[in-house]
């Protein structure tokens, strides 16, 4: 396995052409797998791929190598672009809802598994991490087998949740580049899911976007039972969460305004628009400077929440 | 009229009554052309700006190039016109679609839909010891991207980098941003030349460097 020659052929240090049919074989028919290698392959570091390709008989000369690389990279990138662009908002909505279901179910089942396993084994920790430890045990007898098996399902669900998060991480920027950059892929997906799609999110006024996910609080407010909510799901954004409480309403309003514009640009044009991001960064710097300013005015207080200052 | 600062294949040509930087190749983005030469607009290209401002890029033509942040292929298509094998890395699908179109008629331009921050995802395609890395990525951590990609560059190779101040920190003074980016860069590179590109690109610093 440590043989470098082997490595160059197929191992993790192999070039994109590993396994490709050699020069001179007319019926190549391996374009598909070579494209897939370009798209999904990896190597720890670069090597003299043209030279190695000639040595391995994949091509006769460096010129041939570059010809085949051109053909394969153009086809692979065209295919990858098409695939990424096909990832649409509804797929993203499915993915984020599935993520939530997996997470909730994993946590619920983890509790059950921990409770059961705790009656059979010593030192069982709660939660998904506890379930991971239980799943690794060697069961003895029917009851232990069932408890360990249940913990294994929890681990499977938790892993599926992580895989879904990775998928969202990759596809959200293709679906909504500006929104994903501004909100982060997961929050972008949640906003789209809450609105029911990118188009409906793009059509919402920013005041609605600001309280998406806080519908209970909003209706309590509308029926006169509560103050108006300052923020919904966008609370999870660093700009809101890490702003001191008295400025959070301003921060949420500024963020929601730009998120709404980002969703509109993504839906109607699809181009990345840098000015949008710059304007939000500037606005946030101004809002956070308020905390700095007041700290300067009555600095003698030295109270604990002054650390909510800007990150600039 | 060849210019000592310009690589072979890049010339100042008369196009539409103006003397303009130009390369020879199929047109890509509706740029003006004359006799098969296509105007290279330094206002749309950081590298074009660096040539126009007389940076010593160390390029003489025919080099193997890794281009990071190829976007729609505007600049990298000119690079492929005068350089040798050219690897073009771009992460966003929409511009990459245009990049593929620019690459199709250029048989030594290889488009890759990859994230320049994770070189292991394209190290199985991009060869070692390239002569030049051209970098124009507009994300935070531009110096970090350059440092991570140093592994591709030959010992005497050149990094041609445009640092955009506003991508790092919109509130800080550009000078401060450039200083801290250069500090990070010095961990992997020796800086040969720096200069503001403001005549063509506001708040951008052009950098020529070589691996340490």
What is the compact description of this entry?
Chain A has 312 residues and is an all-alpha fold. Chain A has helices at residues 4-9, 31-40, 49-55, 62-86, 89-120, 127-135, 141-175, 177-183, 185-195, 198-202, 206-211, 215-222, 238-241, 248-268, 274-297.
Instruction: Please tell me the overall pLDDT of chain B.
Output: 94
Name of the CATH homologous superfamily of the largest domain in chain A: Nop domain
What quaternary form is this?
A: heterodimer
Identify the overall geometry of chain A. Answer: flat
Mean pLDDT over the full residue set of chain A: 86
How much of the sequence of chain B is in beta strands?
Answer: 25-35%
Q: In the CATH scheme, what's the topology name of the largest domain in chain A?
A: Serum Albumin, Chain A, Domain 1
- Tally the helices of chain A: 15
Helix fraction of chain A by DSSP (H/I, runs of at least 4):
55-70%
Spans of at least 5 consecutive residues with low confidence of chain B: none
CATH class term of the largest domain in chain A:
Mainly Alpha
How do the SSEs of chain B run, as a string of H and E?
Answer: EEEEHEHEHEEHEHHEE
The biggest sheet of chain B amounts to:
7 strands, mixed
Number of helices of chain B: 6
Helix vs. strand class of chain A: mainly alpha
The strand count of chain A comes to 0
The helical percent of chain B reads 10-25%
The arrangement of helices and strands of chain A along the chain is HHHHHHHHHHHHHHH
Give me the secondary-structure category of chain B: alpha/beta
Strand order of the largest sheet of chain B: 7-6-5-8-9-11-10
Binned strand content of chain A: under 5%
């Amino acid at each position: 396995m440590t043989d470098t020659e082997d490595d160059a052929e197929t191992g993790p240090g192999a070039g994109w052409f590993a396994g490709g049919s050699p020069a001179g074989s007319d019926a190549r028919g391996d374009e598909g797998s070579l494209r897939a290698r370009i798209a999904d392959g990896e190597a720890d570091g670069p090597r003299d791929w043209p030279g190695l390709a000639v040595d391995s008989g994949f091509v006769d000369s460096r010129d041939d190598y570059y010809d085949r690389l051109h053909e394969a990279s153009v086809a692979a990138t065209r295919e990858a672009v098409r695939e990424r662009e096909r990832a649409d908002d509804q797929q993203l909505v499915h993915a984020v809802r599935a993520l939530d279901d997996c997470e909730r179910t994993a946590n619920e089942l983890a509790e059950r598994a921990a409770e059961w396993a705790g009656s059979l084994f010593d030192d069982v920790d709660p939660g998904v991490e506890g379930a991971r430890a239980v799943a690794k045990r060697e069961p003895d007898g029917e009851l232990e087998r069932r408890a360990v098996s249940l913990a294994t399902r929890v681990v499977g669900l938790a892993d599926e949740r992580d895989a879904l998060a990775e998928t969202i991480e990759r596809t959200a920027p293709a679906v909504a580049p500006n929104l994903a950059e501004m909100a982060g892929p997961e929050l972008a997906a949640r906003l789209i899911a809450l609105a029911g799609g990118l188009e409906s999110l793009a059509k919402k006024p920013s005041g609605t976007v600001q309280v998406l996910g806080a519908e209970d609080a909003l209706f309590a407010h509308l029926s006169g039972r509560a103050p108006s909510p300052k923020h919904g799901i966008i609370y999870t954004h660093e700009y809101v969460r890490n702003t001191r409480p008295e400025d959070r309403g301003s921060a949420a309003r500024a963020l929601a305004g730009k998120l709404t514009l980002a969703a509109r640009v993504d839906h109607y044009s699809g181009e990345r628009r840098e000015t949008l991001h710059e304007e939000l960064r500037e606005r946030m710097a101004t809002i956070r400077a308020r905390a700095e300013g007041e700290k300067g005015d009555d600095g003698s207080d030295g109270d604990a929440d002054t650390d909510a200052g800007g990150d600039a | 009229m060849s210019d000592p600062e310009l690589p072979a294949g890049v010339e100042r040509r008369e196009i539409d009554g103006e003397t303009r930087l130009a390369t020879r190749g199929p047109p890509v983005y509706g740029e003006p052309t004359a006799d098969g030469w296509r105007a290279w607009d330094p206002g749309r290209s950081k590298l074009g700006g660096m040539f126009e401002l007389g940076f010593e890029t160390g390029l003489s033509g025919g080099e193997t190039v890794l281009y990071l942040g190829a976007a729609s292929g505007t600049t990298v298509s000119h690079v492929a016109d005068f350089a040798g094998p050219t690897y073009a890395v771009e992460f966003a699908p929409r511009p990459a679609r245009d990049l593929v179109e620019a690459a199709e008629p250029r048989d030594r331009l290889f488009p890759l839909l990859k994230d320049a921050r994770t070189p292991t995802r394209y190290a199985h395609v991009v060869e070692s010891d390239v002569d030049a890395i051209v970098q124009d990525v507009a994300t935070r951590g531009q110096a970090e991207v350059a440092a991570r990609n140093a592994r591709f560059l030959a010992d005497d190779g050149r990094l041609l980098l445009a640092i955009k101040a506003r991508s790092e920190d919109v509130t800080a003074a550009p000078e401060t941003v450039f200083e801290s980016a250069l500090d990070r860069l010095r961990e992997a590179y020796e800086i040969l030349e720096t200069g503001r590109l403001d005549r063509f690109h506001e708040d951008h610093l052009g950098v020529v460097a070589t691996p340490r």
